[in-house]
Amino acid sequence: MYGDTSIQKPIKIAEPTSAEQAKLEEIFQQKIDDDIKIEPQEWMPAAYRKTLVRQMSQHAHSEVIGMQPEGNWLTRAPSLRRKVILLAKIQDEGGHGLYIYSAAETLGTSRAEMIEQLQSGKAKYSSIFNYPALTWADMGTIGWLVDGAAITNQVALSRGSYGPYSRAMIRICKEESFHQRQGYELLLTLSKGTKEQKEMLQESVNRFWWPSLMMFGPNDANSPHSAQSMKWKIKKKSNDQLRQEFIDATVPQAEFLGITLPDPDLKWNEERGHYDYGAIDWEEFGNVINGNGPCNKQRIANHIKAHEDGAWVREAAAAYAEKQQKKQVA
Ligand code: BYC
Asked: Is the CB of 225 under 6 A from ligand 1?
């Protein structure tokens, strides 16, 4: 098939000496400092690769697990228009998961491995998706607050140092902006509706406000990965910076909806030029990210079932690809 089969033999590359390693790290950091994107085939420190795989796989898992709370409402959407919009949004989230899994695979970890880590509890996904979607208003609140928080973070991630991740984020942010707007439009409709609809809107926001703020992760002082990730420009803004940006943008939107946000300490601070806000319940956050939130077990059980039920699709796709390859060779 190929003339010279010797090229297929594995080539043993000598480990760099510690002086060579230090030089490689220096060149690498210089590229980052100069805002040059890092591409898959380039040398990178093992810890940079590991941090990216951790964050990107968690991100991809969040997109896919995030389909569940909304999927729960597809059969109960109140009109054909709302159903079509919700269905399209959920499909987008699945697509986002696939872009990010593909981007993560460029770092040498297979999608199968990442999924195994999700299902066995070794990998995390966003805390927010361990809360249930109890009412139709939650479909609007998830779009407004959850996608809103996600975009705030992802716009910063789209300027990150790893090429495939940052490029995936550009497209994802465009789609997420529609998601955020459809959520806000849904809530705006409820805000002009009956007394019951207004109450449903307020009750939903009361439940989702604090968990949405937790999406940005622990306070900077308690965020073990932040300092190094910022140095490598995997993260361009800190957890607290992004949380503050989100709050500042969201409070006026809440006022326009005519609702209150469930935080008595939320008020504009003229001196800081930002809203002050109350204490986040980090104990609740810790419980949720360690597997003990309201829906953790259900989310993973559903994922495992869907993955097992879909085994035949993967087998069929692999058989088809093999057949196509044989045709090309013949
Ligand atoms: N949830 O040192 P830290 C969407 C973990 S989905 C769970 O600050 P880091 C959508 C953290 O992993 C978009 N875990 O970490 C889909 C670490 O644990 P490990 C979701 C959290 O990585 C459907 C530990 O706490 N977006 O848009 O520097 C429908 C210490 O934290 C969380 C992303 O995934 C959390 N909230 O910063 C609607 C963005 N926060 O790994 C919408 C990508 C922290 O050591 N991810 N932890 O075991 C990131 O930007 C960063 O990973 C984080 C955390 C800001 C989340």
From this structure: yes
What distance in angstroms lies between residue 100's CA and the mean position of ligand 1's atoms? Answer: 14
Q: Residues 6 or more apart from 172 whose CB is under 8 A from it? A: 96, 99, 100, 154
Number of other residues whose CB lies within 10 A of the CB of residue 22 = 11
pLDDT at residue number 9: 54
The answer on pLDDT for 3 being more than 50 is: no
Q: How confident is the model at residue 13 (pLDDT cuts 50, 70, 90)?
A: low
Please list the residues that pair with 306 across neighbouring strands.
none
Strand ranges (DSSP E) for the chain? 267-269, 274-276
Q: Is 240 exposed, middle or buried (CB count within 10 Å of its CB: 0-12, 13-18, 19+)?
A: middle
Ligand 1 atom having least distance to the Cα of 125? 7
Using most ligand atoms within 8 A of CB, pick from 53, 54, 55 the residue to mutate for ligand 1. Answer: 55
* Rounded to 5°, angle at Cα 254 from 250 and 257: 140
Averaged pLDDT, 48-64:
98
202 lines ligand 1 (CB under 6 A): no
pTM for the whole structure? 0.93
pLDDT value at residue 11: 58
Of 251, 223, 254, 249, give the one whose Cα is nearest residue 237: 223
Ligand 1 pocket residue status of 223, Cβ below 6 Å: yes
| Residue 270, C-beta contacts closer than 8 angstroms, at least 6 positions apart | none
- Single-letter residue type at 255: E
pLDDT of residue 14: 74
Does the beta carbon of 59 sit less than 6 angstroms from any atom of ligand 1?
Answer: yes
Query: Which atom of ligand 1 approaches the CA of 51 most closely?
Result: 22
- Whether 149 is in the pocket of ligand 1, judged by its Cβ within 6 Å, is no
Burial class (CB in 10 A: 0-12, 13-18, 19+), 37: middle
Q: How far apart are CA 157 and CA 236, in angstroms?
A: 7
Ligand 1 touching residue 140 (CB < 6 A): no
Which stretches does DSSP call E strand in 54-213? none
Beta-carbon contacts of residue 277 (< 8 Å; ≥ 6 apart): 213, 247, 263, 265, 266
